[in-house]
Amino acid sequence: MTAQLRILKTKKKLSKEQVYLQIGVLALLSIFIIFTYGFRIATLRWNLSRTELYIPSLVTEENIEAANSPYFISESSIAILFHENAFYFGNLEGFGRSLKSGDQKFYIPHIKEQPQLEELGTNLKALMGTVLSDHKLAILIPAANVDITKVIKVVDYLRSSQIFDTVILGGGLI
Amino acid sequence: MRQHNSNHYRLLAEIKSRIGRDFTWFPFVGLLAFGLLLVLTGHLLPKLNVRWGSPATLIELAGPPSPEGAIWFSLSVRDEFVIATTEDRTVLHWHVDAQTTEALGELRNYLKERQKSIFLATALAKRVSVSEPLVIISADSSLKYKHVRPVIYLLAQLGFSHYAFETKQPLS
Fold it and tell me: Domain map of chain A by residue range?
């Protein structure tokens, strides 16, 4: 009777431990899987890129030799006003004299609030042909309420379409 | 005497049974430690992704990859404040209507410190790069140009020659 009881107890004990063992192994594996995914998410590098812009530096007679840039902002530099409704562009001279006058300025309206980049590109290429300047520099002046995503897209278009090598973001004019 | 012996044997049997019981739990502690070590060394040694947890939602645009060693911070808008989150997760903020660089004192100090540390590292490494340091702005897609403009003015004041907006590389 005692021997049978002990066998029964042992059997019960062994069967219990087997269940615990399986649960334990499964729990550990689950923890490792969760940790592996968690850490992978935390360490995985995103596939990121950049749209680069430049900040002009003031060149005076003292530091003109130190300034090693082939780009200079002059009256013939192209300025593009990125308004919420349209693009206004022309050379800086035209914008410098009178902002509201139509002299030496061109206008491309947005269609359904979408900037017409292809049209802007075609017109800018035509304008670049007439400008007596060998540098490809544009000054983009977005209006205060223009979405930053649209600004980035315009900058990217101006650079990727190889119309301009350098784009400078400006402000304060509109 | 017989009773005493019987108790003694029963006690001995109990001790035997207790000692003889399999301690199945102890390898799990070792296994857990080994597994954690494996996971940590496998994943954390390649360095944490500094962009992880950035509040900015980026637009998809193909371009050159972001370089290592650039000064990075994200910009987003929340509750009438422009929030700048730096690489070390420092959160700086100023009011959305701020249009001058005076309101961006915290960001100015942060950028100055980063600039200083980069220049020091460059000097110690005995290398010169005209393109450094590059500032990468991870601008949230909900931002307007007026939110970013004072930051660009600040970069110009601090003598940075170029900066970049971070975008997400398209999947295709």
Answer: 1-48, 78-169
- The 3-state DSSP class for residue A114 equals strand
Name the DSSP letter for residue B102.
Answer: G
CATH T-level fold of A78-169: Nucleotidyltransferase; domain 5 (3.30.420)
Q: What is the pLDDT along chain A (174 residues), one digit of tens a residue?
A: 577 888 877 776 666 556 677 787 888 888 888 888 887 777 777 788 888 888 876 666 566 555 555 567 777 788 899 999 999 988 887 776 666 666 678 889 999 889 999 999 998 888 877 665 556 788 899 998 999 999 999 999 998 888 888 888 887 655
B121 DSSP assignment:
H
Which of B144, B154, B168 to mutate against chain A (most A CBs within 10 Å)?
A: B144
Closest Cα to residue A24, out of B11, B111, B77, B35?
B35
Whether the ipTM is more than 0.90: the answer is no
3-state helix, strand, coil in chain B (%, to 5): 45, 20, 35
Residue pair A96/A165 in contact (Cβ under 8 Å)? The answer is: no
Are A124 and A133 within 8 A, CB to CB? no
Q: A interface mutation test: which of B26, B60, B76, B167 has the most A CBs within 10 A?
A: B167
